[in-house]
UniProtKB/TrEMBL annotation:
Cross-referenced Gene3D superfamilies: Electron Transport, Fmn-binding Protein, Chain A (2.30.110.10)
InterPro entries tied to this protein: Flavin_Rdtase-like_dom, Split_barrel_FMN-bd
SMART domains: Flavin_Reduct (SM00903)
Flavin reductase like domain span: 18-172
The protein's name in its UniProt record: Flavin reductase family protein
GO MF annotations in UniProt: FMN binding; oxidoreductase activity, acting on the CH-NH group of donors, NAD or NADP as acceptor
Length: 197
């Protein structure tokens, strides 16, 4: 099969959503004048080591937030955000936090998620996350299409849950990833591979 995205794929579901997979889930927490917010984004990844930087993309809008969603609206306001890593133990809460609550509703409260404060930024974080990355915005880029924004952030603080550190390495019990459509996976089996040279 070959198709040009601009002409459509003719399938019941868009295959592009599942081709670039698995994708880690960035559970983005923010704070703004309307309160605290928490939402998962599967267009997320690390993009640089020094200084450490991450990115996530928001690809939709809410009527009560103009051209975007709560996360990007609050990041525009404050210039900071926190990325919380999702484990299987937090799957249900992560899913609950994806509901389209009105602006100003606190997903931490609605989903029963324990909240903690960040150290380097004024922002909440998920207390039980295996790791949380405190970030200052490097830039927000407008992407092609409607309501598509890329947020790049510099990591200014890192929280690692103590039980996820073993022999000096970050080794969480599992990692949740998005495969596209309604499909997710849990990564538990890993192996090491040396680069040539």
């Amino acid at each position: 099969m070959f198709y040009k995205p601009a002409e459509g794929h003719g399938l019941p579901h868009n295959p592009f959503n599942a081709i670039a997979a698995p994708r880690p889930i960035g559970w983005i927490s923010t704070r703004g004048t309307m309160g605290d917010n928490l939402a998962p984004y599967s267009f997320f990844n690390a993009v640089a080591y020094v200084p450490p930087q991450v990115m996530f993309a928001s690809t939709a809008a809410k009527p009560d937030r103009g051209d975007t969603k709560d996360s990007v609206a609050q990041i525009r306001e404050t210039g900071v955000f926190c990325v919380n890593m999702v484990s299987l133990a937090l799957l249900d809460q992560m899913n609950q936090s994806s509901a389209p609550f009105p602006a100003g509703e606190d997903e931490f409260l609605h989903a029963g998620i324990a909240k903690a404060e960040c150290e380097t930024i004024d922002c909440p974080r998920v207390a039980e996350a295996t790791a949380s990355l405190e970030c200052r915005v490097a830039r927000i880029e407008t992407l092609l299409g409607q309501s598509n924004f890329l947020v790049l952030g510099e990591v200014t603080g890192v929280h690692i849950r103590p039980d996820c550190l073993r022999d000096g390495r970050y080794l969480p019990p599992d990692r949740m990833v998005r495969l596209g459509y309604k499909d997710y996976a849990v990564v538990r089996d890993t192996f090491e591979l040396d680069r040539p040279g």
